């Protein structure tokens, strides 16, 4: 049994389509404060996005999702969304924005920092399906791009990516050493996603990169740590219109030490 805390801050900007004339939109937590503790989901606790629905839900047993200001100093000056996970239960704690204006390709970026704990998993999922708006973990058939961080002893983190129906390390580098638990370290994560039937190009620092159909690239701190990664179980050539950050506990009877996770999420899709 253990507890975990997530913190998001500042704004989220979401655009879809790597090419074309898609318009950006911004989701901002603002500067307000408050706390949500129910396993009955709410779509009104957070500010309303300009597209889609913002939803929060706390897993059964004590836990909370809070807007905090001030929060972690090196994660910005706006309100943070802090999520303290439930204890002694595998019930899902989840924050999602679902059913926004859809697209088949896109770019997502967020900043993330971790601290504390030896147990449990954090999952970022981009895709489409009913699990983005219910109380369950996200089924792999609904995920196009999925990242999983598993916390371990000595401040370690192992990250995996979803390949078809299972998480693994195929195609990524430094899976057990890239991330560590230290809020002094803030990682910039970027996802380029292509669920169309043709390859597409994107440009970084005057260099053009080609992204195959039904594949995605993963960048961390300006380094491409995964190129042409296989998608999850979401069918090719269908829209993506939802993303979520959910926590899955590994219930252990003898574990009581707090586990804390701080996250700055800043999302852009083009």
SSE order and pairing:
Layout: E1 5-9, E2 11-14, E3 25-28, E4 34-36, E5 53-57, E6 64-68, E7 80-84, E8 93-98, E9 105-115, E10 121-127, E11 143-151, E12 157-163, E13 166-168, E14 187-194, E15 200-204, E16 207-211, E17 215-220, E18 223-230, E19 242-248, E20 260-264
Antiparallel strand pairs: 1-7, 2-3, 4-6, 5-8, 6-7, 8-19, 9-14, 9-20, 10-11, 10-19, 11-12, 12-13, 14-17, 15-16, 17-18
Structure description:
It is built from no helices and 20 strands. It has strands spanning 5-9, 11-14, 25-28, 34-36, 53-57, 64-68, 80-84, 93-98, 105-115, 121-127, 143-151, 157-163, 166-168, 187-194, 200-204, 207-211, 215-220, 223-230, 242-248, 260-264. It is 0% helix and 44% strand. The radius of gyration is 17 Å and the shape is globular. With 270 residues, it is mainly beta. The protein has one domain: Sandwich (Jelly Rolls). The termini are far apart. Strands 5-8-19-10-11-12-13 form a 7-stranded antiparallel β-sheet, with no helix packed on it.
Q: How would you sum up this structure in a few lines?
A:
The chain contains no helices and 20 strands. By secondary structure, the chain is mostly beta strands. It is globular.
- For the termini, the CA-CA separation is 41 Å
Q: What is the count of DSSP helices, taking H or I runs of 4+ residues?
A: 0
The main sheet comes to: 7 strands, antiparallel
The CATH topology comes to Jelly Rolls
Instruction: Order the strands across the largest sheet as they lie in space.
Output: 5-8-19-10-11-12-13
| Helix proportion range | under 10%
What structural category do the secondary elements indicate?
mainly beta
* Unreliable runs: 1-17, 250-270
Give the percentage of residues in beta strands.
35-45%
> For this structure, what is the CATH class?
Mainly Beta
């Amino acid at each position: 049994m253990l507890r975990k805390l997530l913190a998001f801050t500042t704004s989220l900007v979401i655009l879809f389509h790597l090419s074309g004339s898609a318009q950006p939109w911004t989701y901002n937590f603002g500067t307000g404060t408050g706390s949500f503790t129910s396993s009955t989901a709410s779509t009104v606790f957070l500010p309303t996005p300009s597209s889609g629905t913002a939803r929060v839900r706390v897993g059964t047993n004590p836990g909370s999702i809070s807007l905090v200001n001030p929060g972690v100093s090196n994660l910005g000056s706006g309100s943070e969304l802090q999520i303290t996970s439930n204890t002694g239960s595998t019930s899902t704690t989840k924050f999602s924005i679902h059913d926004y204006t859809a697209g088949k390709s896109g770019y997502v970026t967020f900043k993330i920092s971790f601290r504390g704990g030896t147990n449990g998993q954090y999952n970022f999922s981009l895709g489409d399906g009913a699990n983005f708006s219910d109380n369950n973990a996200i089924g792999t058939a609904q995920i196009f791009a999925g990242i999983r961080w598993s916390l371990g002893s000595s401040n370690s983190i192992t990250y995996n990516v979803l390949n078809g129906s299972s998480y693994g390390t195929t195609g990524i580098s430094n899976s057990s050493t890239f991330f560590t638990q230290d809020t002094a370290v803030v990682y910039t994560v970027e996802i380029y996603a292509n669920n169309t039937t043709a390859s597409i190009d994107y440009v970084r620092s005057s260099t053009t990169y080609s992204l195959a159909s039904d594949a995605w690239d993963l960048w961390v701190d300006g380094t491409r740590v995964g190129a042409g990664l296989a998608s999850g179980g979401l069918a090719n050539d269908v829209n993506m219109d939802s993303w979520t950050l959910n926590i899955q506990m590994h219930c252990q009877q003898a574990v009581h030490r707090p586990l804390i996770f701080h996250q700055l999420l800043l999302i852009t899709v083009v």
